[in-house]
Structure formats: C-alpha cells, structure tokens
Amino acid sequence: MSEPRNNTTPAVSKPIALRPKEAAKALGIGERLLWERTNRGDIPHVRIGRAVVYPVAELERWLAEQSSRATRGGRGGGR
C-alpha cells in the first residue's frame, strides 16, 4: 500500500530582491521615476555587475521611513 499523499500546495517563498520592473510596480510608480530616484541614490538598491536589484527588506524599511516623514510634515523622498 502506498503512503498517503499530501495535497497541500508548497509554500511560495517571498523574493528577497526585485528587478526594476517589479520594484516599480510594487511601489506604484513608473519605471522612469524609479530609475531617476535610483540614480539620485534616493531608493535603496544593489548593483550586481550591470544588473540593478531592489532588496525587498530595504524597500519596506525605506517606504516606512518616507511614510513617517510625510506624517511628520517632512519632505519625504531622500534616503
């Protein structure tokens, strides 16, 4: 007799970094604005060779900081 099957769906792991198109979509902004802010050093990113990726944990932290600044009346946007 065979062992019972486990019909649960395997857990999908959350990515640790996003490519530019994914990051722009996650932030709700266009890719052009993402690149402008990336090149200014405003949005946390990592360059790996010629590729640019956006660490999810850093984006979440950065977004929380921007939200906090906005609620305190600060200019948001900087890093």
Outline of this structure?
The chain has 79 residues and is α+β, with helices and mostly antiparallel strands. The chain has helices spanning 20-27, 31-40, 56-71; strands spanning 17-18, 46-48, 51-55.
Report on this model:
The structure is a single chain. It is extended, with a radius of gyration of 18 Å. Strands 1-3-2 form a three-stranded antiparallel beta sheet. 43% of the residues lie in helices and 13% in strands. The mean pLDDT is 87. By secondary structure, the protein is α+β, with helices and mostly antiparallel strands. It is built from three helices and three strands.
Descriptive keywords:
43% helix, 3 strands, 79 residues, extended, three-stranded antiparallel sheet, alpha+beta
The strands making up the biggest β-sheet line up spatially as 1-3-2
Strand content: 5-15%
Overall body shape: extended
Q: Note the run of SSEs as H and E.
A: EHHEEH
Helix content: 40-55%
**Regions with pLDDT < 50 over 5+ consecutive residues?**
none
Average pLDDT confidence is 87
From the helix content, strand content and strand pairing, which structural class follows? alpha+beta
**In angstroms, what is the radius of gyration?**
18 Å
Got a strand count? 3
